[in-house]
Design brief:
mainly alpha; 3 strands; Phenylalanyl-tRNA Synthetase, Chain B, domain 1; single chain; Non-ribosomal Peptide Synthetase Peptidyl Carrier Protein, Chain A; three-stranded antiparallel β-sheet; elongated; 7 helices
Length: 152
């Protein structure tokens, strides 16, 4: 397990222990705890705790600066669609994969479904020019999400 994975696991544990799915993090304290640069903490937050994965981050810089990290919980499956809509109508492969990770983390799809859905997002499968590929990826993901909602 690499340092990024260890930091991610640590933060997820903090979220699991919180009563309100929210934690306040101090970048410098975390960096000191893990013996790394604060920029590595930023990297973990930006890549592992983003809206595509079901997290909202708020940051305040300065002497008393902090990062507020909020994990979104799904009370109703219909809440998936607004999250997907926030991504826009053109998705990169990374955004789509992050969104699928979030669906899996929320328990809405199993590992096999995530793997199948990920395979469809691959640029080799969507073998069309880049601008249209992002739009097609969005439409396919939207159709799959709507199918999940109808099944439950």
């Amino acid at each position: 397990m690499n340092l990024v994975d260890i930091i991610e696991l640590y933060i997820k544990t903090l979220l699991d222990e919180s009563m309100d799915n929210m934690v306040l993090l101090r970048r410098n304290e975390l960096a000191q705890h893990f013996g790394c640069a604060p920029s590595q903490i930023n990297y973990v937050i930006q890549t592992r705790f983003n809206p595509q994965r079901g997290y909202v981050t708020e940051s305040q810089r300065g002497g008393g600066g902090f990062i507020r990290l909020i994990r979104l919980d799904l009370d109703k499956l219909e809440m998936i669609l607004p999250v997907l809509d926030e991504l826009g109508e053109e998705l990169s492969q990374r955004q789509a994969i992050d969104f699928l990770h979030w669906l899996h983390d929320q328990g809405l799809i199993d590992p096999r479904e995530a793997q199948i859905m990920s395979a469809v997002m691959d640029p080799a499968v969507l073998n069309i020019p880049a601008p249209a590929r992002g739009e097609l990826r969005y439409r396919i993901l939207l159709a799959m999400v709507e199918a999940i909602i109808r099944e439950v």
